[in-house]
Amino acid sequence: MIISSAVAHAEALHAGAGSVLRRCLARRGMLHSECEAVDQIVLEPHARIDHRGRTGVDEAWFVLSGTVTVDECDSAPWSLHAGQLMLSPAGARPHLTTGDLPATLLLLATLPDRYAAQLPPRVPELHHD
Questions:
Q1: Is 64 helix (H, G, I), strand (E, B) or coil?
Q2: Alpha-carbon span 43 to 15, nearest angstrom
């Protein structure tokens, strides 16, 4: 078992009036799946995420606390609240902004089906004592 506060792996970004703290909780090599990464994102009030540093992956954004405004190029801005999930396909680049209160999100980045289908099956090793 690994227990970590993940502080050493956190990246602080300054975005607008607030800042964004991004912690990597797991990466592809740690997982037996087509998952690229699992990150915790903490947004201070009035923070905005414009670029997350990954391209070509599908993303699932789950709001753990707070509310974010989602701005996509092809629709009017809308709100995503605690307990809600947003699926964002590869190539979509929604902008996420907080209001007067902070927000914490969980980001799951996965390979799109067209790439995952080309990978050999990955099976965890089973050890027998």
A1: strand
A2: 9
**DSSP H stretches of helix in 53-111:** none
- Please give the helix or strand (H or E) that residue 62 lies within, else none: strand 58-65
Contact 104, 64 (CB under 8 A): yes
For 114, the enclosing helix (H) or strand (E) is helix 113-116
With CA atoms as reference, report the closest residue to 124 among 39, 38, 30.
30
Contacts of 113 (CB under 8 A, 6+ apart): none
Per-residue pLDDT of the chain in tens (129 residues, 90 and over written 9): 344 454 444 454 544 556 787 777 766 655 556 677 888 999 999 999 875 556 788 889 999 999 999 998 778 999 999 999 999 888 887 889 999 999 999 998 887 777 766 766 666 566 665
pTM comes to 0.71
Do 116 and 57 touch, CB atoms closer than 8 A? Answer: no
Q: What are phi and psi of 11, to 5 degrees?
A: -120, 120
Residue 49 CB neighbours (<10 A): 22
